[in-house]
Specification:
Shape: globular
Distance between the termini: 38 Å
Number of helices: 16
Oligomer: single chain
Helix content: 25-40%
Strand content: 15-25%
Number of strands: 14
Structural class: alpha/beta
Length: 448
Amino acid sequence: MKEIIKLSDVTYEYRSQSEERPPVRALDHISEEITEGQFIVVLGRNGSGKSTMARLLNALLVPTEGTVIVDGFDTSREEVLWDIRKTLGMVFQNPDNQLVATTVEEDIAFGPENLGVPSEEIRKRVDSAAATVGMADFLKHSPHMLSGGQKQRVAIAGILAMEPKCIVLDEATSMLDPKGRREVLNLLLTLNREKGMTIILITHHMDEAIHAHRVLVMQAGRLILHGTPREIFSRVETLKEAGLDVPHVTALLYRLKQKGIGVGELPVSTEEGIRSLESLISREGSGNKVNLLRPAGREHSESIVKIKNLTHTYMPGTPYATQALDQVNLTIEKKEIVGLIGPTGSGKSTLIQHLNGLLKPTSGRIQIDGLILNEAKGEQMRKLRQKVGLVFQFPEEQLFEETVFDDVAFGPRNMGIPEEKITSRVRWALEAVGLNYEEIYRRSPFNL
């Protein structure tokens, strides 16, 4: 097969505007070749260099050292930039970052228009791309009114309309619910198998990696493993050291193997795991007792959240009125850990934004630690937000100061915490989430 991507001894460093701070090396002498028609999955924990590598592939970044060749074009040459981006399309983590038009069809047409494709050909490409991703019935819809999975389909359609040979997806499924992830993954597999398109998928989801021809594993800017999914996931301890996991079924059989049970080759798919377990049961017999660990009963605790008949309607009294919550009742006790699940559009985000007063109920009642939210104003709202902290899906929506220190200190300062106590609070908070205070507190939060 023809080689479509070649990285030769590639290093990339992010340089600070301040001469006092040394550059941050994101990639460290990476070499790899990818041939046409492969489905490649790239794994690695946050900060391992995955996104940097993705941006080097379509010349959003240029190597500090080494070369990146895409379909014969050197990404460091500005005169071939458009040739590279016609060859290799990029889909980002958050589809909203790629949706620019007022209708789906205009969004899909945006890329071909910028490439100078004739209008008649654009019409054909838009219809074909929309049909391929299953969005042909949504061409006149606003892309911003779609679900997360549908938005990501539109983003992919916009890339397909440019007719690239390769698509790179930078954690494009990480913000989607399970149904949306399955939709996007099935689409990628179809493009790869039926159209021979090269797919490079950067992901944290191990169940997506099992479909790859090859898996690349990155750690601290280096490529530490590459091989088939079976070869990679047999290296359980190496993956753990790199801060990664393995598919659940692989982990289960690996633990059995550690107990001395003759598992044989570790499975990578659920179907393989079932066959392995069936084989074990038939060999060992089914007379063994199974002990079920049940959670110990909790003592009665004081309720911290009480929600009664909560209803919320967006844009009430307009043609766009949407009822997001309908008579929700919920009690949460102190010290509880509660998981809230549901598909995209089920009302999860709307519900939690009521808990610190970002949204007010259309009807119903909310009580937080004795404070009735419906009646809270001014100083009471400030106290409420001391009690309930909210972390959003996209961290960029909560970061706005010039330094990490000032960003973390923003909340305590607004709560009136004395300045002499701020530094110790910021240090504790950063280290609590695994960030080294001395290394990070002066950096811009947008360079992380």
